[in-house]
Amino acid sequence: MEIKFMVDEREIQLGCEALESLVGNLPDEDESLGELFHELAQSNIAGVRASVARKSVISAETVAILASDSSPEVIEALVNAQCGKLSESDLAQIVQRNWSGVNRGIAGNVEGYDQSDTTALAKLLAGSTDPSVRAALASNRGAPKAIVRHLLKDPDPEVRRLAQNTLKR
Length: 169
Known about the structure:
Helix content: 55-70%
Strand order of the largest sheet: 1-2
Order of helices and strands: EEHHHHHHHHHHH
Oligomer: single chain
């Protein structure tokens, strides 16, 4: 991918940080930028892809491209900004990577992923080998109660305690 910045017919080379900043400062709501964001989602610079992931006007197709990204920075930006656009298969693909920080974020807002079956997603997260992911799910008052009740039997005492506290509320 070649990106050129032109000022009065003069081409200026931008470094990675300047390009990330430029993309980050483009308007989030301008639908006319959707195609540009789609192209930028395929950049070889993770910071640029992460900036695109935060844009509210990106299409479901762009979200799908970003969901298969290999960078935790991009995936974290995507799960934080695109709850309503991530498909169930995209989320399953992301969760199965077992990136603790990303999965904790999903577990803390499992009910916010509109395109996914909340119970199926919570069940997937409850099966995580990372107790901090299960703890985030256990302490989420929006998580399906059946899954939180299941976490009352978790091998980790902190997860059990958090699940118990959540069910008491």
